Amino acid sequence: MSDAQEATKPDEEAPVPQDQSDDSDEGEASGDSEMDFLRSLFSRTLGLGPGEKVLDELTLDGVARYINSGACKNIICMVGAGISTSAGIPDFRSPGTGLYANLQKYNLPYPEAIFQIGYFKTHPEPFFALAKELYPGQFKPTVCHYFIRMLKEKGLLRRCYSQNIDTLERVAGLGDTDLVEAHGTFYTSHCLSFLCRKEYSLEWMKEKIFKDEIPMCDKCSGLVKPDIVFFGENLPARFFTSMTADFPRCDLLIIMGTSLQVQPFASLVGRVPKSAPRLLINMEKTGESDFLGGMLGLGGGLDFDSDKAYRDVAHISTCDEGCLALADLLGWKEELQELVKREHALIDSKNKNEKGGAANENSSATEQTAQGAEAGISEKTE
Ligand SMILES: [Zn+2]
Q1: Is 39 part of any known ligand binding site?
Q2: What ranges does the record list as Basic and acidic residues composition bias (predicted)?
Q3: Is 83 labeled as ligand-binding?
């Protein structure tokens, strides 16, 4: 309840002209906004009415000109695993990444069980063993993460909806209010015991994972689980409350590094107003409407190429390259590169201090991941 109230609080611009409406007759303003609301509701849900063409050209240049025009103030980013791959973070949950093939040693009844809440409660060991194996050597955000931060700093970011659980958005400087972590996060953990629910930090969880200890609550001895959404668990309530408040106000949707396969996340692309341009930065085109989606009224799929295309732009590249190209067109490229350099140096020096210069014999896996991330970044920023 309080969650829902908080989510709607910042939206003061919502047209609710209370002072004008006497009880007896309905104020015109209120009638108008009601009509506007109904019109947009119908056009959204029924796919009626042509959307207004906002971009002068369905290209990255067109998007950049739109942003620079000042008409675009509520950008929503939707991001997935693809924005973190250059940081050396494997796609944790998607089948087909080769990850599931490596799970045999855990004697799972079937591979997906490792992420199923029911199985986890009785057999938590495989999940934590896998978490250790896949634990990123460093939490170093990518060019793309910092591009999103720049959107925030320039007052253009409405919200970033992430499917990732790697916390890199937070490391890059996005805060609680900037972010909706649709599939949860490793950033915090909670005791699963219903009456306790004690919260634990990432550092606490990391220590347990690396000591090969099953994390148990120090208050009630219950099992402690990272706050990532397992199969069989609900998405965070914040996902739904924020979605309702954000998407009708979106004037540019930027979708990056996601194949838009997982619901309900994928359906968000259809929730922006019909006139809002949608930019996809990804290694392949995705999210185009299919027959089944149309039949189920899920509509709103992306349309880059048909003769009706009027607002969707596909930029086929890595997320880092796409963000750099867009930043370049916006005149932000140097600023972005400076930000990445500065932040990475900060993270490096922090890591050095934490290690205390003591043991230089890092696990080779950790080093490799870190170097891989560096190489990926510098390749793209130069
Ligand atoms: Zn507890």
Answers
A1: no
A2: 1-12
A3: yes
Residue 72 marked in a binding site: no
Burial call 122-147: b when 16+ CB within 10 Å, e when fewer: ebbebbbbbbeebbbbbbbbbbbbbb
At 256-295, the pLDDT tens digits run: 999 898 888 999 999 999 999 999 999 999 998 764 555 4
Q: At what angle do helices 364-381 and 319-330 cross, to 10 degrees?
A: 30
What does the domain layout of the chain look like in residue ranges? 50-88+141-183+239-347, 90-138+186-228
Q: Which CATH number fits domain 90-138+186-228: 3.40.50.300, 3.10.50.40, 3.30.1600.10, 3.40.640.10?
A: 3.30.1600.10
pTM of the model: 0.77
Q: How far apart are CA 240 and CA 267, in angstroms?
A: 12
Find the catalytic residue in 183, 190, 315, 344. 183
Q: DSSP string of 80-100?
A: -GGGTGGGT---SS-TTSSTG
224 CA distance to ligand 1 middle (Å): 7
Catalytic residue status for 315: no
How many A from CA of 110 to the centre of ligand 1?
29
CA 352 – ligand 1 centroid, Å: 34
The answer to whether 35 is annotated as binding is no
Listed residues: CB within 5 A of ion ligand 1: 191, 193, 196, 198, 217, 219-220, 222
Compute the distance from residue 51 Cα to the ligand 1 centre, in Å.
52
User: Distance, CA 116 to ligand 1 centroid (Å)?
Assistant: 20
pLDDT digits (tens, 9 = 90+) for 295-305: 454 557 899 99
Residues 281/302, Cβ–Cβ less than 8 Å: no
